[in-house]
Design a protein that fits this description.
The protein is of the alpha+beta class. The chain has six domains: 3-61, Helix Hairpins (Orthogonal Bundle), CATH 1.10.287; 82-326, 2-Layer Sandwich (D-amino Acid Aminotransferase, Chain A, domain 1); 330-437, Nucleic acid-binding proteins (OB fold (Dihydrolipoamide Acetyltransferase, E2P)), CATH 2.40.50.140; 441-511, DNA polymerase, domain 1; 516-596, 5' to 3' exonuclease, C-terminal subdomain (DNA polymerase, domain 1, Orthogonal Bundle), CATH 1.10.150; 610-684, Rossmann fold, CATH 3.40.50. The protein has 24 helices and 23 strands. The strands form six sheets. The chain has a six-stranded mixed β-sheet, sandwiched between helices. Helix 6 (191-199) packs across helix 12, helix 13 packs across helix 14 and helix 16 packs across helix 17. The chain is globular and about 85 Å long.
Length: 695
């Protein structure tokens, strides 16, 4: 046998084995045998590179060459679906559709996979292109990364010219496994985000390391070609071509017997229902959701008859023959007007959605976080899109999903690679973009504001607006300037008088009493927050001098300090600018060792206890002040109720934490009981003041 024929035979066998493994879940050979054949094909391809076939399984491994993801105009309609949030809305959709056609219809229901919409284009049975949905008209060509997905056939069983829509996803188990291996700054919030980031990896060899999967659910043929007459037949044909379809499908019609016959005629397994069983089906799928191997966020109901679909047609946004039932209603819906870009104190770039005002959680939301470019890409978000808004942890609003694409043809938003403040070219670290210019005004203002903020050095009179005014005036440029600035020079500027200057000086001098652990966490050193500062001090590094001399090995010997954290701390404390700031702060009387702290004596009556807090309080505002009281008495604090939590301090309006505490047998303590435990009277605990703005 000559090399060409031998390679063709190996490719055919390996593709057959891959389909059996990834699509049918029935391996035909052992891993050892598969590897032997694969290695033989790879050897031949290296010897005869001119004979490499376009559908060779070796192309799934990916390349370390950089992709630039060119745009591609879709040749089929790639629209989103109309949404329903109740059984009645689904039934109404079916009733109206049947009424318009004045004939009996059937509907197919499929799980709505929480993944990334993808279109696969095949010419003569060979995969030529994998394209994201984009704005429905234009998407990104991510073919090289899509080739790495084992369930995507590189060659079909027939030489068909076809476009296929599918959903790329990551199983729950795979998400946990892959995410656990990523650095903290690269971890994804959920499986969908990780899948979206993977299909946009610049190097396909990196995409190949993530076990992405796909379910295909629609096929489109060129005009003049004989196409199936029903959606069930489409799914059956896709399966015969080698595509992986979701086996959890259902058919609805006037009676269960007809639905069962439609499934059998198409040669598919599924659940058969009558229209009267809609509630039963939705309740069942809602209950099963948590036990699936992958995430779903709803169900999709489609007219089964293709001719009826053609008659119903499309709106500009969605097909009239399908509707998506969502398990959870969006907390708020708004229109994305624009995207602004913020620069943080570390130089990190954060895109922010500017929205049409919408009520959410008792407040009016005009802005919501978009996290980073990868998050925007995962949503395929564009200006003008209608979006759903949620509040994570009941605090920070974020854009959750795209409800409807814009009518203006706007494509996915891309962050300008120049800093919006200083114009410096941005750099990428992990999932985030950063401005590397340490002199960037926004970074400096952010660092000054962080240092002075409540919970850090707590300089009440220096809020963000005041700091910006002083920065613009040239009075404050570095942290150490806070203690040496001539604030009296600002008298007469924007309403600042003698009393204001005195208030500033008093709060600045008061901040000099802050203990070393607070100072350390306020310097803005990456990886050193309040908890890590306490860990370092309790581990023997109770002065800035000791920390400057510490090695990575010495820091990692402390329980709770990882190698990455240790390296960042060591490198940060070699920075001459930071060392200069530390020296000048020390000369201004700021505590740079624990021995300098004005220690307040508290008993250890709460030693061995673990506390969590929920709700709002009259005497502890913010509520973190209550947790400070716990820590002063030897107790530990945590952000969530777990089996290790011993006490929950519950104020007014607490949420699910109280229910968790009761379920786990955690003692629930009221504010009044807590004050008694501290051995203090109410009138001795002064409420925490809000940080003041001077104009």
């Amino acid at each position: 046998m000559d090399a060409r024929k031998e390679m063709e035979a190996l490719v055919k066998r390996l593709l057959e084995y891959q389909k059996a493994y990834y699509v049918d879940s029935h391996p035909l050979v052992s891993d050892m045998e598969y590897d032997r054949l694969y290695d033989e094909l790879k050897r031949l391809e290296e010897e005869y590179p001119e004979l490499v076939l376009p559908d060779s399984p070796t192309r799934r491994v990916g390349s370390d060459l950089t992709n630039d993801f060119p745009e591609f105009r879709h040749t089929i309609p790639v629209l989103s679906l109309d949404k329903a949030y109740s059984r009645d809305e689904v039934i109404s959709f079916m009733d109206k559709t049947i009424s318009k056609q004045q004939k009996d219809l059937s509907f197919v229901a499929e799980e709505k996979i929480d993944g990334i919409s993808m279109v696969l284009y095949y010419e003569k049975g060979v995969l030529v292109r994998g394209v994201t949905r984009g704005n429905g008209e234009v998407g990104n060509d991510v073919t090289q990364n899509i080739r790495t997905i084992g369930a995507v056939p590189l060659r079909l069983t027939e030489d068909a010219d076809i476009a296929v829509r599918g959903e790329v996803f990551l199983s729950k188990e795979a998400f946990v496994s892959v995410n656990s291996r990523l650095d903290d700054d690269k971890k994804a919030a959920n499986a969908r985000n990780l899948a979206a980031g993977t299909v946009r990896r610049q190097k396909s060899v990196e995409a190949a390391s993530v076990p992405l999967d796909i379910f295909c659910y629609e096929g489109f043929w060129a005009e003049g070609k004989d196409a199936p007459e029903s959606h069930l037949e489409i799914l059956s044909y896709l399966k015969r071509l080698g595509f992986k379809i979701n086996p959890h499908l259902a058919c609805f019609s006037e009676n269960r017997e007809k639905s069962m016959r439609l499934l059998e005629d198409a040669g598919l397994k599924g659940d058969a229902y009558s229209f009267s069983q809609m509630q039963e089906y939705i309740d069942q799928k809602t209950a099963e959701r948590k036990n699936l191997e992958y995430e779903i966020d709803g169900l999709v109901f489609k007219v089964n008859e293709i001719k009826v679909r053609e008659q119903l047609g499309y709106t500009e946004h969605h097909p009239r023959w399908a509707i998506a039932y969502k398990f959870e209603s969006p907390q708020a819906v708004s229109k994305l007007l624009s995207i602004s870009v913020q620069v943080g104190r570390t130089g990190r770039i954060t895109p922010v959605a500017e929205l049409e005002p919408v009520a959410l959680g008792g407040s009016t939301i005009r802005r919501a976080t978009l996290h980073n470019q990868e998050y925007i890409d995962s949503l395929e978000l564009a200006i003008g899109d209608t979006v759903s808004i949620v509040k994570r942890g009941d605090v920070i609003p974020q854009v959750e999903d795209v409800i409807e694409k814009n009518e203006d043809g706007n494509t996915v938003y891309k962050i300008d690679m120049r800093c919006p403040c200083c114009g410096t070219t941005l750099i990428k670290e992990g999932a985030h973009l950063f401005c590397p210019n340490r002199e960037c005004p926004e970074q400096q203002i952010g660092l000054l504001s962080f240092f002075s903020s409540r919970g850090q050095m707590d300089i009440e009179t220096l809020g963000p607006k005041t700091i910006k005014m002083f920065y613009d005036a040239g009075l404050l440029r570095k942290i150490e300037d806070i203690y040496t600035a001539d604030y009296s020079s600002m008298v007469g500027e924007k309403g600042i008088g003698e009393k204001t200057v005195k208030a500033i000086m008093d709060s600045v001098n008061e901040s000099k009493k802050q203990p070393f652990k607070v100072v350390l966490s306020s310097l803005g050193i990456s990886e050193i927050g309040k908890k890590s500062a306490e860990i370092l001090i309790s581990g023997g590094f109770d002065s800035i001098g000791k920390l400057k001399e510490a090695s990575v090995e010495q820091l990692t010997a402390i329980d709770g300090v990882g190698e990455k954290t240790a390296k960042i701390i060591v490198e940060s404390l070699k920075d001459q600018r930071l060392l200069e700031t530390i020296e000048k702060l020390s000369l201004s009387g700021i505590h740079m060792s624990a021995s300098e702290d004005d220690a307040e004596h508290y008993d250890d009556s709460l030693s061995g206890t673990v506390w969590c807090v929920t709700g709002s309080f009259e005497n502890f505002n913010p509520r973190s002040k209550a947790m400070e009281e716990v820590e002063k008495r030897g107790g530990r604090t945590t952000s969530s109720v777990t089996g290790k939590t011993t006490h929950l301090l519950a104020g007014k309006g607490g949420g699910s934490k109280r229910e968790d505490a009761i379920r786990l047998g955690v003692k629930v303590v009221s504010e009044e009981e807590f004050i008694k435990m501290l051995g203090q009277k109410k009138d001795k605990i002064e409420p925490k003041k809000e940080q003041l703005e001077l104009f």
